[in-house]
Specification:
six-stranded mixed beta sheet; single chain; alpha+beta; Alpha-Beta Plaits; 6 strands
């Protein structure tokens, strides 16, 4: 017979079964969401690790490329500083420039002055004055060759004068220059 008690029994039974399914589904969803969180965290860490490795690989390949570019140039740069206790090689280069271009020159060097730059080795500067007599095209050729010398030198000031109105005649060029030197202790 169909009574209210029976109805509550059947409804309660179905409600408990439904509640059991809901609880089971909630446990399964909670477990699966935990697994999804673990997997997504692991994937994020893997992506971060891959990005870091890619960045390091790029950095190392750039470093390798740059070291190949530098090659022996660090020694070339080091040799571009004349030693303060022996400027004869630099003087010989200036004299060879004068001979090559057929000019007469006279120069005067001052004492080395220590520089306060933060470098791996002590640097000094030596100022010098040079006076050259030649015609204008020869002076231009001399200055072009001067630019190519393998030392750190710069012309601080330059004066060109000609006794006549024509620059093709003998002119005089005087310049004050500075050469970088490695201080020898």
């Amino acid at each position: 017979m169909f009574t209210t008690k029976n109805l509550f029994k059947i409804a309660g039974k179905h409600f408990l079964i439904a509640l059991g399914f809901i609880f089971s589904a909630a446990v399964i969803v909670f477990f699966i969401s935990g697994q999804i969180t673990k997997i997504s965290n692991g994937a994020a860490k893997d992506r971060q690790t891959a990005a870091a490795l890619s960045e390091r690989t790029t950095l190392l390949s750039n470093l390798k490329y740059e070291s190949e570019l530098i090659g022996d140039n660090d020694n070339v740069i080091r040799r571009a500083f004349i030693p303060t206790n022996n400027i004869l090689e630099f003087v010989a280069i200036l004299e060879s420039l004068a001979l090559k271009n057929g000019v007469t020159q006279s120069f005067h060097f001052s004492s080395p002055t220590p520089d306060t730059l933060g470098t791996p080795f002590p640097i000094s500067t030596i100022t010098y004055q040079n006076t050259i007599s030649a015609n204008a095209p020869t002076i231009i050729n001399y200055l072009r060759d001067f630019e190519k010398i393998p030392y750190f030198t710069k012309i601080d000031s330059i004066t060109i004068s000609s006794g006549k109105a024509d620059w093709r005649d003998v002119s005089t060029i005087s310049f004050s220059a500075t050469v970088a030197a490695q201080a020898i202790q």
